[in-house]
Design goal:
The complex is a heterodimer. By secondary structure, chain A is an alpha+beta fold. Chain A has one domain: HPr-like (Histidine-containing Protein, Chain: A), CATH 3.30.1340. Chain A has a 4-stranded antiparallel beta sheet. The longest helix of chain A has 13 residues. Chain A starts with a strand and ends with a helix. By secondary structure, chain B is α+β, with helices and mostly antiparallel strands. Chain B has 3 domains: 192 residues, no CATH class; 86 residues, Gyrase A, domain 2, CATH 3.30.1360.60; 153 residues, Distorted Sandwich (Glucose Permease (Domain IIA)), CATH 2.70.70.10. Chain B contains 15 helices and 18 strands. In chain B, the strands form 4 sheets. Chain B has an 8-stranded antiparallel beta sheet. Chain B has a 4-stranded antiparallel beta sheet with strand order 1-2-4-3. The longest helix of chain B is centred in the first third of the chain and has 34 residues. Classes of the chains: A alpha+beta, B alpha+beta. The interface between A and B is medium-sized, with 23 and 29 residues.
């Protein structure tokens, strides 16, 4: 399953928020991907997520596949919407 | 001393090589001329020939050898013996074969003014040989060999030895001896001790020499030279001749000249427009071949790491064993726990080390591919061929500076070698505006790492970029 979200925090997905996102994604068993219209990244790899170069306002699709995909997706979407606070 | 020692070895090899070449060449040419003379010339007995070529004999046989004598006498007493070896072989090379580069290279880079004199003196030599109507020709260069080969075709050759030669000898000797002293020109054997030895207090030259020679194998040296040249991506063209690497580089600022000298380059000529010559002596050609194969290897092996996408992070090489990561900056190495930022200190982004930089330059701490260069230039990510993903983050909270004070020198997707300059930053501005200048260097895919440690002689110490900091064992 997947869901579209928009990056809200001011500096986009720079090192720190990306790290938090990756850490959050890594605790789930499901495979988690972040997709833009151009690229896709493994949400459990920091370098991969940072490589998307997401800025404030970027629209992304988060997809999770696996036994805990519902919680995984929900957690990550909440995290992004809370600007990684 | 290191340079002197190498120089001496190179020159000796060079002289012998040149001599062999010369002898073969002379035999070939003479033979050729005897059998297939097509037009009248000096060697065919033309009495009008040999006027121009005669002008070079006083230089090769008298002038430049006199310069070597002056340089020898001006060398420091402790280095005289080594310099005598260099200068004598260089002088004999000039006299016997007419190959003058070993002498010229010993002064033109340290004192271009001597080269200007050398050019003017060549004019004077031509004037004098013409005045005394000396006719001498050569097949290759104005040497004793050529003098003998053309002995029966000469005119007024005696005047060369009796008048013009001694004049040139006296002129070169006086000018070199006087100028080197007056301007304190660092010709061989006059270099400042610190330049090549550091502060070692070895009591003899021999002792110091053994300390300063770096234990790098040939291909390591090629690797280091390549890194000092700014890495594969900085090299647009690479060639070599018998004494030097000839290069065209993308950005001359990425070339670390001091490092090149540390690696044994006797001179570096920046000809402008990215054209560069680095004088490594006769090993230049071998270095060129090694660097070329390194460039190919590195580009292909690093390129095999998939570009950023879902597979990065899984793409771990099969190499097992210890891998090292260098410091990307000059500065003090501290542990990750001391980073004044919770996310880094808690190792959420990964483990590694941090640097308190002492100047505003970031160099590649390992060979690899740049997979992420933040648009603000304050941080970058790279992946090594072993699959290690490294994040270098300059300062804390520097993302808020929106790129002010940062200059990225590489782009995403570029393959770089350790030592390539990646980012320049304004240390003063960042110290003032950012939360901290402490710069984390962390491995972001810790899942591939079995263990890592900061090596003992880096932890808490000031190091230079390129020093080994982290020792890693892969799973």
């Amino acid at each position: 399953m997947e869901k579209k979200v928009i990056i809200l925090n001011d500096q986009g997905l720079h090192a720190r928020p990306a790290g938090i996102l990756v850490k959050a994604a890594s605790q789930f068993k499901s495979a988690v991907e972040i997709k833009t219209d151009k690229k896709a990244a493994n949400a459990k790899s920091l370098m991969s997520v940072m490589g998307l170069g997401l800025v404030k306002g970027s629209e992304i699709t988060i997809s999770a596949t696996g036994e805990d995909e519902v919680t995984a997706l929900e957690t990550l979407v909440t995290l992004i919407n809370s600007k990684f606070a | 001393m290191k340079i002197l020692l190498r120089g001496k070895i190179y020159l000796t090899i060079f002289c012998e090589f040149a001599l062999c070449l010369k002898v073969m060449f002379v035999i070939f040419i003479t033979f050729n001329k005897c059998l297939f003379t097509r037009k009248k010339s000096y060697f065919a007995g033309d009495p009008t020939a040999g006027r121009f070529m005669a002008s070079e004999f006083p230089i090769m046989l008298f002038g430049l050898p006199a310069a070597t004598l002056a340089m020898y006498l001006r060398a420091k007493a402790t280095k005289r013996k080594a310099i005598a070896g260099i200068m004598l072989s260089a002088a004999l090379t000039s006299i016997i074969t007419g190959i003058t580069e070993p002498i010229e290279f010993s002064f033109i880079f340290v004192a271009p003014i001597l080269y200007i004199f050398h050019v003017c003196a060549a004019f004077l030599s031509g004037f004098l040989t013409n005045l005394f109507d000396i006719h001498l020709g050569y097949t290759f260069s104005a040497s004793i060999i050529d003098f003998i080969v053309g002995f029966f075709n000469q005119k007024n050759g005696l005047m060369l030895f009796a008048v013009v030669g001694p004049i040139m000898f006296a002129l070169y000797f006086t000018v070199f001896y006087w100028l080197i002293g007056a301007m304190d020109i660092k010709t061989p054997g006059r270099e400042d001790e610190d330049d090549d030895n550091g502060s070692e207090d070895g009591s003899s030259g021999e002792g110091r020499r053994s300390i300063s020679v770096q234990p790098v194998s040939a291909s390591d040296k090629a690797r280091e030279v390549l890194a000092a040249l700014g890495g594969a991506k900085n090299i647009r063209a690479l060639d070599a001749c018998i004494t030097r690497l000839r290069l065209t580089v993308a950005n001359i600022d990425n070339v670390n000249k001091a490092r090149l000298k540390g690696l044994g380059a006797a001179g570096i000529m920046d000809a402008g427009g990215g054209n560069l010559q680095v004088i490594f002596g006769v090993e230049s050609d071998m270095l060129k071949d090694q660097i070329q194969s390194l460039m190919k290897q590195d580009l292909s092996s690093v390129a095999s790491v998939t570009s950023v996408g879902t597979s990065v992070g899984k793409n771990v090489g099969t190499n097992v064993g210890s891998i090292t990561i260098n410091s990307p900056m000059n500065g003090e190495i501290i542990s990750v726990d001391s980073i004044p930022d919770q996310t880094f200190a808690d190792k959420i982004l990964g483990d590694g080390f941090a640097v308190i930089p002492s100047n505003g330059e970031v160099y590649a701490p390992m060979d690899g591919k740049i997979v992420q260069m933040f648009r603000t230039g304050h941080a970058l990510g790279m992946v090594s061929k072993d699959g290690i993903e490294l994040l270098i983050h300059v300062g804390i909270d520097t993302v808020k500076m929106e790129g002010r004070g940062f200059k990225a020198l590489v782009k995403e997707g570029e393959n770089v070698l350790a030592g390539t300059k990646l980012i320049e930053f304004d240390l003063a501005l960042i110290s003032k505006e950012a939360k901290s200048i402490i710069s984390p260097v962390v491995i972001t895919n810790m899942d591939v790492i079995k263990s890592l440690e900061i090596v003992a002689n880096a932890k808490g110490k000031k190091v230079n970029q390129g020093s080994t900091v982290l020792k890693i064992n892969l799973k």
